[in-house]
Write the structure tokens for this entry.
Amino acid sequence: MKVAIVHDWLTGMRGGERCLEAFCELFPDADLYALLHIKGSVSPTIERHRIRTSFIQSLPLAERWYRYYLPLFPLAIERFQLESYDLILSSSHCVAKGIRPPAGAKHLCYIHSPMRYVWDQFENYAQGGRSGWIARLGMGLFRARLQAWDVASAERVDQFVANSHNIADKVRRYYGRPASVLHPPVDWQAFQASEKSEDFYLMVTAFAPYKRVDLAIQACNVMKRRLKIIGKGQEEPRLRKLAGPTVEFLGWQPDEVVREHYARCQALLFPGEEDFGIVPLEAMACGKPVIAFGRGGVLETVLPLAETAGADKRLARMDPARGEDPSRSATGVFFFEQSAESLAQAIKLFERHRAAFDPPAIRAQVAGFDRVLFKERLKAFAMAALAGTSH
């Protein structure tokens, strides 16, 4: 079986790349296609594949400013010539699902999100003063065209597998297509429950607008709580200007350093609305609670304190395939207004109920997301796609 894996771009190891890494382990001889590849930015497991890039790679300043070429991405992904493949496995949050599969091949799309820049996250990316006026103007001009392309190109997919029920709902809403659900993996065996709790909160994130790192900084400034932030991204200059003396920027760090910070922190702060969110699972695999904005993928992974669970009936959605039970131990605290004040109140609630969080019990609840299980389920989806049957 000849397999091609298609990913949007290879510029760092974030949640989508953790999934891609599992794809590469499952199909070690697959060819890998991406709009852009910054060499050395992804794991050796990914780097050792034959990586083929688009014309975006050779455009001026592409390694740093590739997002500004967004209107060209559909053309770039469609120009890839994929021939003689039996299976196309796309890993898509932007345009990867728009690849043109060759005749006779099956296209299985693992979708992290419909193109968020032109759908539900458009305001975060293009408005609110976070982008320059040229970017805002360009995104406004091209938004309708990109939305139309995104919907039309969904017809090139034989089967969608969404990373969460949250994204399956969006696939149904935007594309009119059903999607199975397979939650992303966490390397559960690489983490251990920690009883340590030092005097700091933690964020592990790219500095993209929708991550709302600014809310965590503002809340910790006002509360005078220590905050360590592991990550980098386009918002870094603005965020550094916001940060007070209790906020520390650590840049991207190796996996072992990230794990050590999970093990030592009081709790993880997660103020953005995510499609799914692997970082909360990693923190919980270390037995650490998550203080999160109560929308998006965290509703499927974080079990809130009873005091916050009644604030939104959507929190009742659990995954029966993992045998979830509302009587399980709490793994976090939610807040429901995306503001620094609301996050600060959630931090205070966590601090009042700190004793309610049991590290081994929190860690145990992540076992169902283990990487080995993810690869087994993904392989079953791939075999079903090749056979022309749904899974």
Observations:
- The chain is about 35% helix and 15% strand.
- The first helix runs from residue 15 to 26.
- Confidence is low (pLDDT under 50) at residues 312-327.
